[in-house]
Automatic annotation (TrEMBL):
Residues 112-209 form the LUD domain. This is LUD domain-containing protein. It comes from the Bacteria. InterPro entries: FTHF_cligase-like_sf (IPR024185), LUD_dom (IPR003741), NagB/RpiA_transferase-like (IPR037171).
Length: 212
């Protein structure tokens, strides 16, 4: 063990003293594009399947005109809803609940009393059933508003759907906080029993805007 340790340390010293010239190039030959074209019907179908596998509920609508009705139906008997400041105003036109805009920012205690949150998303990854929230975008808002309420409703447009993780990362700004969401918050840490709602929303509904 001592010999191996000394060899590792010696290599590190050599690389350091050489100013990086002794560090070999690392080949990065992984696939950067997915099987399905971004925004394609195949990518949307793949996303629908992987989201469902993660126990999210997907509601397909044919156009953005159908979004308000879908959101209203999903929210059902919710009494209070929080929205990021830049959420399209028409999306909540049919909602019977009281809508609170996160401007000025609501406290955690206020968010804990809200039934649901409605947001957009920056991009969605079909292969992994994941969508990504960019806190810099006005229709997605602060990370806190999507983690504290028990129900998250996210609106995804077909053009935001890509096939693979590298394609998604290429569309994102790494300088801002990013939240990757794959299904409702859940853990199986305790005796391998799945418990939902531990680190975030217990219920996740996705309104997917894509021609059918």
């Amino acid at each position: 063990m001592t010999g191996a340790r000394e060899e590792v340390l010696a290599r590190l010293r050599t690389a350091r003293d050489a100013g990086g010239s002794a560090v070999p190039d690392v080949p990065r030959e992984y696939r950067r594009r997915g099987v399905h074209a971004p925004g394609s019907a195949a990518a949307v179908e793949r996303l629908t399947g992987t989201l469902t596998d993660y126990r999210a509920t997907v509601h397909r609508v044919g156009s953005e005109d159908d979004v308000p009705g879908a959101i209203a139906a999903v929210l059902g008997e919710a009494s209070t809803v929080v929205a990021p400041p830049g959420l399209p105003s028409g999306w909540l036109a049919g909602v019977g609940a009281s809508v609170r805009t996160d401007d000025p920012p609501l406290s955690v205690a206020d968010l804990d009393r809200v039934d649901a949150v409605v947001t957009g998303a920056a991009v969605a990854i079909a292969d992994t059933g994941t969508f990504v929230l960019d806190a810099l975008a006005p229709d997605q808002g602060r990370r806190a508003i999507t983690l504290v309420p028990d129900h998250h409703v996210c609106v995804l447009r077909a053009e935001a759907v890509v096939s693979s993780v590298p394609e998604a990362l290429a569309r994102l700004d790494p300088n801002g906080p990013l939240t990757f969401v794959s299904g409702p918050s859940a853990t199986s840490d305790i005796e391998l029993d799945r418990v939902e709602g531990v680190h975030g929303p217990r219920r996740l509904d996705v309104v997917l805007v894509a021609p059918m």
